[in-house]
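Help wanted!
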Amino acid sequence: MALLETSKPSQGSVLGSVNPDLASERQTASFSVETLTALLDGGAEQTRIRRAVVEAIESDPVFSREYQYFQTQNERYEAAVRKAVHLQKKMHEMGWTENGPEYKYIYRALSGDVAFLLHRIFMRSISVLGSDKQIAKLIPLATQHRLIGSYAQTELGHGTYLQGLETTAVFDTATQEFILNTPKVSAMKWWPGDMGRSATHTVVFAQLYIHGKCYGIHPFIVQIRSLQDHSLCPGRVIIAKTKPREIAKVRPDGTYVRQGSQKINYFTMTAVRISLISDEVLTPLMKACTIATRYSVVRRQSKLKPGKVTIAMPMSTLSLLHQLSSNREEEAKILDYQTQQEKLLPQLAAAYAFHFTNDYLQELFNKGYREIEKKNFDMLPELHALSSGFKAVITQHCTAGVEICLRACGGHGYSLLSGLPSLYTKILASCIYEGENTILLLQTARFLIKCFMAASAGQPVPPSATYLAAVKHRKCPAKNKLDFLSPDIYIEAYQHVAVRLTSSTAAKLQDLIQSGVKKHDAWNQCTVQLVQAAKAHCHYIAVKNFAETVEKLETKAGIQKIMKHLCDLFALHGIFSNSGAFLHDAYTSGAQMDMVTSSYLDLLAVIRKDAVPLVDAFDFTDQSLNSALGSYDGQVYQRLYEWAQKSPTNQMSPAYEKYLKPLLHNTLSKL
Amino acid sequence: MALLETSKPSQGSVLGSVNPDLASERQTASFSVETLTALLDGGAEQTRIRRAVVEAIESDPVFSREYQYFQTQNERYEAAVRKAVHLQKKMHEMGWTENGPEYKYIYRALSGDVAFLLHRIFMRSISVLGSDKQIAKLIPLATQHRLIGSYAQTELGHGTYLQGLETTAVFDTATQEFILNTPKVSAMKWWPGDMGRSATHTVVFAQLYIHGKCYGIHPFIVQIRSLQDHSLCPGRVIIAKTKPREIAKVRPDGTYVRQGSQKINYFTMTAVRISLISDEVLTPLMKACTIATRYSVVRRQSKLKPGKVTIAMPMSTLSLLHQLSSNREEEAKILDYQTQQEKLLPQLAAAYAFHFTNDYLQELFNKGYREIEKKNFDMLPELHALSSGFKAVITQHCTAGVEICLRACGGHGYSLLSGLPSLYTKILASCIYEGENTILLLQTARFLIKCFMAASAGQPVPPSATYLAAVKHRKCPAKNKLDFLSPDIYIEAYQHVAVRLTSSTAAKLQDLIQSGVKKHDAWNQCTVQLVQAAKAHCHYIAVKNFAETVEKLETKAGIQKIMKHLCDLFALHGIFSNSGAFLHDAYTSGAQMDMVTSSYLDLLAVIRKDAVPLVDAFDFTDQSLNSALGSYDGQVYQRLYEWAQKSPTNQMSPAYEKYLKPLLHNTLSKL
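Answered by r_m:
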């Protein structure tokens, strides 16, 4: 970034006093922001607890993020460790415990800039898979952070496909040890957070070999650094220190004994996939919406009533050189442009839609957990299909949303100081970890195909898939654009598309197989369409759940009304931007699609009025947004100016003496 | 990034010896890679010159990019200056001149990591707008880099809408000076590259005031730093030093005299918009395709013939714990998965499509320039509409393409070492500068609406818009999926959609105005659809031009055949992924859309065979790709391993002594 003042701006800092352009947006809210915040938190009491946690953390200078955007990777790492360590003291001081109501708000309050994130996964793995002896030995140490754990699964050459892992663990009956080895470069453990620099212990996944026979992937507890001086333990010594037999149940003579319920582990990992949605995916999108929306009512550009010339002129400098300007008339807020509304408001609607989807999934998982406690595992396939599909759909949708918000802020959105690039970097990662999205969607698709086959054969299917049995060949009954504001109409449209995509792909799959194509080749030739079917399934459930949630909302405080608008927008935007799926078999006609478009564009203008209150309801503090564009007071330019001055790029660079001076003084030859 | 070796990999460096998985892809090329490279360069002689420039630059250690990914922003700046300064010597040594055939390859060879990029714009502005006296004084100094120029247009508060600029230039008849001033924080000049740290002079755009009357935006030459010690010149001193009267033609008494042809300036800026497409947009996409495609034939994951369990199993660790692995059978290259082909190959087709679009635009501009030399400005509106629309469409399409390539490489794509994140950061910027894309698309839309009205009234319209007169209400004549491999069929489909979107939006606009809505409000209410129309227009021209280019290609060496496949893929992918536009008025039926889908998916499998030769033809050196995933030898894992060791993050961090040790030794309380 570069800036120049030809003369010092007269204006002093106005930070804190709310920009009138932003203040006016708040005066016209059609609903109670505080009530909506409480709804999002799950109750006013939860809001109170969350704010208390945020206040305690943000008032502590050790957790400051002020210079974050100017830090090197090493400086960011150091800060993350400092915060992680200080957090232990803080929790003790505040009396927060891992099981207390405050705990879940700590991560959000820290905006994730904290180390040891895999420590809990390490502890959970030990608790779930370890022997009583291991638990007794390691968990107390880990709880006090006398050791720091990591989770070493991914290798340089293998990620999602764990069967392909190349690290081996050979049981040596003589020494009663497991010899872990990474025989090739591609077998090297790669990516696990904290392992490279912080962790003293890790859970290493390796192919177990006993007497030359491979027993597949098993986890091994490995100490990787000295607890005394943090020096890296040499390979073989590590192994000798562990007692993995107690996890693997391998008898001294090498007899292999299975243990543990595969299904419970399976459930645990599916739960992890859901748990990341809120903090890692929804929060970044909500922050991006807050930043971009507030900026879009502060930023003014051109006139809505410009006089033909402005629109007809090219966006070029020189062509404007001799044109008289007419700055008397005020420029329009960019959020008043339909195109800007069409960029931001669907992202806002998606943030709310997926927040409620997340509630739905959490509830389903709690139910599933209760069933499993009764040794009933019937819900697992459905839970797996939903967690896989929604992890992929929500991370992709929200990542695209953050990018749209960033681009909608132009050059300033592109600047680190907007906070948007770091949100994008964070959310993009969520598309990659915890299962690659395309593979996850194919998991969901396989579930759908199975359910469709079962349903067609009149067999029972899980609740979320029963609709697949109801193959209707009706047409969309909508008569005018207002009909498309009726949830029954659009929910049925989404359902119809999901059924059509699943059934047509199932048919293609069968045709290919009947025509002699091998099963796996046939599957591969259908995967592009299978992915579409899985997305349609999730989109249908998200729309249905949003509409049902709105139904249940209290009518007071205008909450239900505005949520209904957002639900309609979410549904119609999906139809508008994916119209081919709805038009394909003429379920929806072109004339009806015009009604959808019309209702959709009308909604943009309606929701635009409440855009700022709707992002205010997310209740992010300025510190958590850490954005020069998105602060509550809307003092965008003053903040950019003041923050830019903190940048090391605005200090004199050695480049002048080294390179520029000889060039400018024409003494280059002497170089 | 974090890595762990439980034992040192036995394998030594194999860099240089081509990975067999990549080598095998090259043995089956259906065409001559060298011939295609020459076609892309515009002739074998051009290829020779380009390679000579690349060789000269890459063999010079001063231009090395080796540690680029580990540099701080200040270090990158210093390197960019070092390279820019050294480039002057290099050009002198090599005998390269700004008008020589080598010049256009220098920037590509440097991958843009060089300072003073605005210096040429500065020089061009002086040459075009300066007085003879200014040109005589400044151009020689600038040519020898005795001064460094910048271009200060954008302000904190205004970008694309230049009329809104707030910097003022008040003519003082007493001192015969212009007093430049940025009266508010939002008026501060922001963004101009080099200005913040390197430049000594800049062209400042300001509202000219004479005797209290505003004459609009004018450029002023301002010296901002001392040529002696590079210290920042205090505001008013700067002004006194310049002689802007000679640009602005203001007589001593303050009489304002216009000069220069607005139209020529206008043409110049439109040309700039075109010129950025090749280096700033197409090159990054071609590099991303090269990296992702090569990686996708080296990376292996899971089996195509997996045995049901693998696909049915969740992508979770623990569920796989007790499953026997079967690693004897080799895993599949990820490019053999239809879903991976569907991610990468359309981006590859787009890279070729837009390369030829760029040729078409360049040719059109040369023609336009010849006309202008004859004082014929008739082509300007069309050139402006095309340059605006294609700048927006190509930057958006290619930015999305780079992101898809990045995500298609999973975690390794997300790593800086892949080269993909820096390509994404670079190309994303192109969506923002030289005119915000939505505004540019609306410029094109306005041109289309005018042409449509004119055409409907039987008046003549520019060549690229004549098709708007040919409003057909026919249906798509395709009978089977092979018909969709006929350019006539898909070109007409694209044309039909462009006409429909333009005409329907024109009708909506008229209806609104006739119903009493004010013109500017009516326009605003149509902008979402106007943007769709502009995109459809550009997409139609791109498809048509690609097909016409293929027609003209020599049939030998298999070039025409493979280019025809890519043209078909580009066209069908556009229909497949935007099917609603084609289904809307039933021009294309659902059954025909199934044919499109079928032909599209068939093409993926066909082009996949030539995927590696097709990216090899882009002819990027390993140094220019600077990617651990994309190098010619395909030694992905070894390179990641070796490069990671250069990272400062793999050195011991002070965080241990400061924070970790007290924590692990449980002496925190003493902190």
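OP: Thanks! One thing I noticed: Chain A has 25 helices and seven strands.
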